[in-house]
Every structure is written in structure tokens, then in C-alpha cells.
Automatic annotation (TrEMBL):
Pfam families: Bact_transglu_N, Transglut_core. InterPro entries: Bac_transglu_N (IPR013589), Papain-like_cys_pep_sf (IPR038765), Transglutaminase-like (IPR002931). Gene3D superfamilies: 3.10.620.30. SMART domains: TGc. Residues 175-267 form the Transglutaminase-like domain. This is Transglutaminase-like domain-containing protein.
Amino acid sequence: MSVFLEVEHVTTYRYNKPVEFSPHRVMFRPRAAHDIRVLSATLAVSPHSTQHWIQDVFSNSVAIVEPRVPAEALELRARFVIEHFGVRNLELPVAPEAENYPFQYADEDRLDLASFLPPQYPDDQPALRDWVAQFLPRRGTIHTRDILANINDAIRGDFQYQSRDAMGTQRPSETLDRRSGTCRDFALLMMEVARGLGLAARFVSGYLYDRALDTPAPPATRNTGLQQGARQVESRDEPLVVGAGATHAWLHVYLPGAGWVPYDPTNSLVGGTDLIRVAYTRKPEQAAPVSGSWFGDASDFAGMDVSVSVRQIERPAEPASTGESISH
């Protein structure tokens, strides 16, 4: 059964005096496919700006925003309504030749997957191989899905989620040493581990739906010791969800027969309706929600705020015309 979700994403950059801006690239819009349908999409920008939309090299939707006047703040306010069908990824059949690891991609697949196979951090691979050895048999084969599930679960269970205001992503070896990081760090770690195993993997950015935020728990059930971005609900049916309230990150691994399968090591998810895909890229730096420049002194920058809310809504009225109803 599908669910209907409303996403509101507001990013605000603040300055101590009016500054000028270069064109900004904005990747907020959910990426539609057979599992996600975008019913409406708006992007409002302050100060006065012009905008047009393009597809990048990965066919992600990117808004090019060009502020036309100097301002003390740049606010990007987006709202989306989507229908999420929640594909049951664990039930998708893997091709017989890829059911057990190790396996080799077909030559045609290797050609198409070439940019998603080489590790981004080859110097970190020895440390990653030592860590992933615990999930591999000393001899023989193992189910490919079992390896990925074990890695996904281990990062969720053995690493501590910590929000971080600083931009960028930790090196995989740094995340491994610290046993802590953000969702972006965990996605990059598992992506590099998968690539080290010869599996094609890509970085995914988007949003995370947390049911607990739709119906806030009473004070007695809240755990004040949780890291920022986490919610605890005392119910066997409501696991701890980490990373809501901001943009989220996970990864895809390509399994012949099943295709690109989503893994969220921050929450040990394998797809479902809680992950709302915006973009996929070869490396995290290419998935920045906002990128651009402003002109002034370094001291002019006063800070930034990001607010993301995702809530379930009733089925909206169907648009008068067929297909997507989109306004910009």
C-alpha cells in the first residue's frame, strides 16, 4: 500500500550585511520513478531570483537559482507532496549467478557500472578489508545479500550516530577508527566497503520519514540521552529512527536481477517508504543540496539554518490532468 508524504525543506543563509550571490545549484526535489510519484513541487526563493531546471550527469533534477539583488539572507523554501509505493527490496530476485559472493558482473554491466566500481579512497581499502573480513567466510561462498545485510546491521549497531555542523564527509578510515559519524559518513563507509568487494555502489541523498514525529511521544517515553536528530519511542513496532529533521544519506548497491538496492546503514533499512530519494551520485561531494558562492568578507557570514519536516498526509485530490502536477 502506498503512503502520501509532504516534505518541507527550508535552507537559510544569513549575513551581517547585504552581499551578492553567484548562481546556486539546488537539489531538493525528490527523484520520481516506479516507487515514487511527485504530485506537486514548489521552490520559493528570497531575495528576488530567477530559476530554471536542468538534469545533471546522473539525471538528477537541479534548480539553477540566480539571486538578482544583494541581501542579508538567502532563503530557499521547498515543498513537495509525493506518493511512495515502498518496493519490497528484500523480495526482489537476485540473478542466479549473483546470489552467492564472490561473483562477477557481466561484461556489459561492468561497462555501464564503471564509474561506480572504483573506490574513492583506495588508500583506506586495507583498513576496510580488515574490518569486513569478519563478514566473509574463510572458504567457499556466502549469500551476497547476507554480506550486505551484515554490514548494514553492523554499522547501525556498532557505530554511534553524531550530528555535525561542519560541511563535508569523513574519510571511511576515520569513521572506522572513531566508530561514529553522520549519515553521510556511514553511507560513504558502506559504499567504499562494497566497492572494495567488487560491488558497484553509489551515494544517495534525500529525506527520511520518522513516524514518531507525526505523533510525538509523551515526555515519559523520550530518551534525553539520544544524539541530536534521533527519536526514541517505547514500542516494539517503532524502532529508533536516526537522522530525521535534516537531509539524509544512504547508498545503492547494484545486484544483478534486483537492480539498484537501497541500504541505509544509519537505520539498518533496506528501502521501504521511509527513504525519499532526491539524488544519486558517484561521490558525496556531488550530492550537496545547495552549492554556490557569495561575495564579501569572510566576517560577513553569520550562519545557516536547515529545517526539514516530513509528515504523512491523507490522499490528496488527483490533479485534473494526467501525470505530475508541478509548479515552480
